[in-house]
Amino acid sequence: MSTYARQAAENVTLPSSLDEAVAALAAMPSAVPVAGGTDLMAAVNAGLLRPAALVGLGRISEIRGWQYADGAALLGAGLTHARMGRPDFAALIPALATAARSAGPPQIRNAGTLGGNIASAAPTGDALPVLAALEASVILAGPDGDRELPISHLLTGMDPMRPGELLAFVRIPLLHAPQTFLKATGRTGPGRAIASVALVVDPARRQVRCSVGAVAPVPLRPLEAEQWVAGLIDWDGDRTLADEACTAFGEYVAAACIPDQPGVELPPAALQLRRTVAALSRRALGRALA
Amino acid sequence: MSIIDGTDAATDTLAAGSAPHGIGTSVPSVDALAKAQGTYPYAADLWAEGLLWAAVLRSPHPHARITRIDTTDAAAMPGVRAVVTHEDVPGDAMHGRRVADRPVFASDMVRHHGEPIAAVAADHPDTARLAAAAILVEYEVLEPVTDPEKAFAAEPLHPDGNLIRHIPLRFGDPDATGEIVVEGLYRVGRQDPAPIGAEAGLAVPRPDGGVELYVASTDPHADRDLAAACFGLEADRVKVVVTGVPGAMGDREDSGVQLPLGLLALRTGCPVKFVATREESFLGHAHRHPTLLRYRHHADAEGRLVKVEAQILLDAGAYADASSDALAAAVSFAAGPYVVPHVFVEGWAVRTNNPPSGHVRGEGAMQVCAAYEGQMDKLAAKLGLEPAEVRMRNVLATGDLLPTGQTVTCPAPVGELLKAVRDADLPPLPDGDDESQWLLPGGLSGAGEPGAVRRGVGYALGMVHVLGAEGTDEVSTATVRVHDGQATVICAAVDTGQGFTTLARQIVQEVLGVEDVRVLPSDTDQPPAGPAARGRHTWVSGGAVERAAKMVRTQLLQPLAAKFGMSVELLSIADGKITSYDGVLSTTVAETLDGKELWATAQCRPHPTDRLDENGQGDAFVGLTFCAVRAVVDVDIELGSVRVVELAVAQDVGRILNPRQLAARIEAGVTQGVGMALMEDLRAPRGIVKRPSLTGYPLPTALDAPDVRIVKLVEERDVVAPFGAKAVSAVPVVTSPAAVAAAVRAATGRPVTRLPIRPQAAVVKPPA
Description:
Chain A: One of its GO terms (molecular function) is FAD binding. Chain A: Residues 4-204 form the FAD-binding PCMH-type domain. Chain A: Pfam families: FAD_binding_5 (PF00941). Chain A: This is CO or xanthine dehydrogenase, FAD-binding subunit. Chain A: Keywords: FAD, Flavoprotein, Oxidoreductase. The complex is a heterodimer of chains A (290) and B (768). Chain A has 290 residues and is of the alpha+beta class. Chain A has three domains: 12-56, Uridine Diphospho-n-acetylenolpyruvylglucosamine Reductase, domain 2; 62-173, Uridine Diphospho-n-acetylenolpyruvylglucosamine Reductase, domain 3 (2-Layer Sandwich), CATH 3.30.465; 179-289, Enolase-like, domain 1 (2-Layer Sandwich), CATH 3.30.390. Chain A contains twelve helices and eleven strands. In chain A, α10 packs antiparallel against α11 and α11 packs across α12. The radius of gyration of chain A is 20 Å and the shape is globular. Mean pLDDT of chain B is 90; it is low at 1-16. Chain B has 768 residues and is of the alpha+beta class. Chain B has 17 helices and 30 strands. In chain B, α9 (323-332) packs parallel to α10 (365-383) and α10 runs parallel beside α17 (730-748). In chain B, the strands form seven sheets. A seven-stranded mixed sheet of chain B has the order 4-8-2-15-12-13-14. Chain B is globular. The chains are: A alpha+beta (290), B alpha+beta (768).
């Protein structure tokens, strides 16, 4: 006789549609939704988390692909990193594809999902700066219907997810504009970002949008630097910038993300991080304009 | 990943048509297919009817006094069958591989994060873990001593004191000076052996009151003796059965797992199984010694070394373990494979509250290699010479003296090795029109930019001893049996993946001409063969197998020879046939055996060695092996990311016994060295291990592993070694980190004094 009652099977639901999933969450408010499980199950195995019940999202086919909707791409939250890394997706949203390819070793990319990256909201989440730079919005399915909010509102906690809500889709405007994602890891194989930069040059709105990941709990947008550099670009001409301008942009971004502390000398590690962000931003802008 | 152009002749045997056979051919490993298919059984796969699961309670503090342990709640939990603490150890409370200074369970003090305090057996692993967490331990938390430099003056952390060993080495004239003097301070981090399979085991009680331990031990007899002493049993009532070993870089098993397992099985009368989590694995087993090294090299104007002065401080962690051996290697090889007339070294291994250090291959020798090669680069820069040239002017050769006063009697082709890597072609620069397809530091589609990438080339020469040093009795025993055209080898030497099983088959094939050779699994009912470390089994166990096989050969041929009036030496065996030199006699092995069984047992024990004396002098080593590595790296000098493009290796191997296995060992060693050079460092600020997981502790992946180019394998036979062969696994680990550091130095102009190399150390700051 074992003291261990195998409860797991009864407490895992595998809904096959979003509505069923929302209903399952409403029926068991203590349940935790799980998609790829690359963060969640590691925490469970380490004994850090013991969810009373799980709602598995793997069988909801409507959130595992993407579709077009009014000049935007509507990405299912269950899209895996491996899927986002493929060439057809890369043609659509190149920066997100690059981020997905660098998100970890193949085993992690095969399982880990876009929605999971957002829900875990780790500072080093590779998709997050890209979503911030693309000004993506998230669609949450809940018992009272869907609602849509900017990704930044969700990540910063301005407008957090409410009980019973499920991350269903991510809406990304399709730009037909250069976009880049660069990540510094210190190694050649997949690793956690020391810093990452996503950058979009948007001729339609005559904007440069830049987002810096891994240096703060949420991706940072250096708005002043964006406006400054957008003002330098000849939007009607060949849209090139002098190397000096790119370098200055990099330093502007870095100083905005890792600001000087009045009266305190920054420690060497912070100065190094600032140099890294400056180099990444400069390279990202250079590549986007090339 | 591998490019071999030194061993073509030997690898071609496969292409020649016949199956590989005997010494010098690439006989494939018997278990390779099972391992690739995932059917090879490891300890974590074992099962016994009615087994219980064990969990170990470990200390969350690096240094604390235990004021109370209360197991009442845990023992009362349903499903819990036994809870054991220090009070339940029937035999010796203290154990240790070299010095018995480590308690089975902490009783009054905990000395490192993760030290075992109690263990639970329950009917389910979760129940066992919950029960372990329910054991109440009251601690009086003490200030941890984590800086080895402060350990000297700190309050003793252990009744044995904080100084585990001090070796002063004095060789030559202390007042000698050179025209050129360079100084440096070097640090080497804490590498974890990170075996691919975490620790696991099964203990089964025996009806006679004894116990059998099924574990992936690398030294079954030592583990048995240690367990028997702790259980208060005679050695013959404890049996260690070796299961599949999922990776071993040193002393594989954590005694903090085996001992509780055996105690719980004896207490409950049931089989007990334990499988460590990855976190427990990182906390429990021994790591490479973090080391602080201070050097001063004196040279004359031509770059010839005059004097080397060094201070070496090894952080042993809480217990002595193999620190004494590591220190002896560090001090003896402090100057590297160079001729130095005057050497003065002070080496210390000290106790701290950091994670325990122990035997990880190349211990001691790897850390000093990083330092003395850094010094050689400094010397080259000061003299305005090529780094390879300075090294070439100082290389050691057979007949030279080590700083320990020992004469190098084995082959020492150091100059030849260096020349081979220096003259090898350099790998091409990335080309092709599409720069985005270049593999730059940071990886494919990474942040690397060709304009910021600098290529560097660096050299390192390394040496390490073969077999245990300083008077260790290195002996192994093997038995060979022939019956019915099949040979069987019985030897307790554990195949940890180093390929001993394959080697034993090759030896018997070679000596007896029998194709079908089986090597039985190891356990402690067989005579001892010692630990699988420092190339021992290639030497002593391989030697014992050879002798036993030769004895069987004589038994087989003697009657034939007598019958035909010729000596045994005139008969030869091949493909199961016995022929005489003149071709007159031709018969088969099976016919000659005529249903008989032939058995022989033999031992191999190399010549004895001395312990280093009070001046660090003595013939402490049986054999030495050398290696030269040329590293080519690309560094993104703005981001500090490093990609090792290629490592060219030339190695002194004595004799190639199995070309494919040899190449695999070198590639594995070099890759481990790349991990040490660039990423592996188990951080433990204030004694608390940070991020003990394979996400937090990065290992080289396929993208990080460089092309390994074996440019030369020097086959100069070591006359005292069986087959003249030298062990090959450790010396690439010793040498490659230093080579990578040298190449990063060349690419960036930065000093690079710390391993692993952090990105900030490889960044070239723009002129202010």
